[in-house]
Amino acid sequence: MVTLTLKKKSLPSHDQGKPAGRGPLRGPGARPRPTLAEAQAQRVAQQQAWEREQAEQRDRTERRPQQPQRRDGGGPLSVNNQRFAQNLADRGAPRRDAPPPRQQQGWEREAPPQRGHDDRRPQQPQRRDGGGPLSVNNQRFAQNLADRGAPRRDAPAPHWQQQPQPEAPRQYPPAAPNRPLKSVVNPQVARQMGSDRPGPSPTTPVNRPAGLPSAEGDRLSKRMTALGLASRREADEWIEAGWVRVNGRLAVLGQRVRPEDKIVVDPAAHREQAQRVTILLNKPVGYVSGQAEDGYEPASVLLRPENQWKEDQSGLRWHPGHMRSLAPAGRLDIDSVGLLVLTQDGRVARQLIGEDSNVEKEYLVRVEYHHGPRLPDSDLALLNHGLTLDDHVLRPCKVSWQNEDQLRFVLREGRKRQIRRMCEAVGLKVVGLKRVRIGSVSLGHLPPGQWRYLRRDEFFA
């Protein structure tokens, strides 16, 4: 068995840990405290001693030689750099037996000797940084460059030393024979002013460069419309796209053609035209055919996917591209309903509303007659032919009774509010108007406010 004995550590006394020579502040053995005057005198003595020490340090620094400093301001140089700087200073110091420089001897600067082409001895090259002459190898290299660049004796003089030669007279081509030019001067005005030069004849031919459009004939777009190729807008688009050629040359916008010119349309234009759609809409009351006016919305706002007729047999479905460049071919008043055609195809538009259009349009018109029990037969015959609107004799049309209060109109032209104004001329008041057929395309069972695509096998004429 091992027995461990723990010794109690003695606690340090109050006097341990105190700096030597420092007595207690109070009690027995305390040092006497200096008076205020003694403390001030002691402080002044310490300040004077510190100032003397600083002055002695400044004197030692001024007597010490200044060490070379770095060019970049980074402080004094190292020992090796100081020795290198000292060697450079020793080498650059003038020797005792060396003659004084020319500036101190009073010599004047001599002018450099004139050198000619034969004197090829080059001056000893100097360094660009002013560090003295070049080394032997650099001098040889400079000598080789000077020898190569020296002008040869048989070489021509530089262009700045050559004498200017007189210019030879400029030769012009012979003048062309006189040709009749087109002038804007009126011959009568020229004779009144006393000019003896006659004006050009109206029949004077004008020479036009080959390939330019002719100034005679009709515009190409108008000619294409007359031939039934496209509408004017489509023709301009095809010409701009490069799909039209006249006599084998690419057509340009604004070109004029003659009846004997041959017009050829690229098949790509016909394929693009075949992709354009025509839409049949049963317009209800309260919509205008074209742009919005007087707070009424255009009928085109009804052409939405949810309004497409479920029994549409065209095989086409609504696409945003089908709404682009869609224009109405014909119009219906705000109070009229029935078949409205909207198309992207200019041929269809020209066929239905062109100046030479001959497509029939059938209407059912509900009327009221307040001048007797029934409309006289003479007035009914006048509706068929004989009326004039806006100083224009209307084309013959077909008007007959559909039932007691409804007439059937078949027109071949479409003037503004034509049917209503015709009825007013014979004392009839129109209370309802519906278009049911355009050419061979009928409204059928298409519900009001809905639409369908024109089928590929349907044609208006």
Automatic annotation (TrEMBL):
GO BP term, pick one: enzyme-directed rRNA pseudouridine synthesis
Name the chemical reaction catalysed here: uridine(2604) in 23S rRNA = pseudouridine(2604) in 23S rRNA; uridine(35) in tRNA(Tyr) = pseudouridine(35) in tRNA(Tyr)
Q: Which GO terms describe its molecular function?
A: 23S rRNA pseudouridine(2604) synthase activity; RNA binding
Stretch list, region Disordered: 1-219
Its EC number is 5.4.99.21
Looking up SMART domains in the UniProt record yields: S4
Which PROSITE patterns does this UniProt record tie to the protein? Answer: S4 (PS50889)
Q: Does the keyword Isomerase apply?
A: yes
Q: Where is the composition biased (Basic and acidic residues)?
A: 50-73, 107-130
The biased composition feature labelled Low complexity covers: 19-49, 157-169
Name the InterPro entries on file.
PsdUridine_s_RsuA/RluB/E/F_cat (IPR042092), PsdUridine_synth_cat_dom_sf (IPR020103), PsdUridine_synth_RsuA/RluA (IPR006145), PsdUridine_synth_RsuA/RluB/E/F (IPR000748), RsuA_PseudoU_synthase (IPR050343), S4_RNA-bd (IPR002942), S4_RNA-bd_sf (IPR036986), TruA/RsuA/RluB/E/F_N (IPR020094)
Span of domain RNA-binding S4:
218-277
Name of this chain's protein:
Dual-specificity RNA pseudouridine synthase RluF
Any idea which UniProt keywords this protein has? Isomerase, RNA-binding
Q: Which CDD domains match?
A: S4
Kindly name one Pfam family recorded for this protein: PseudoU_synth_2
Mark out the compositionally biased spans (Basic residues): 1-11
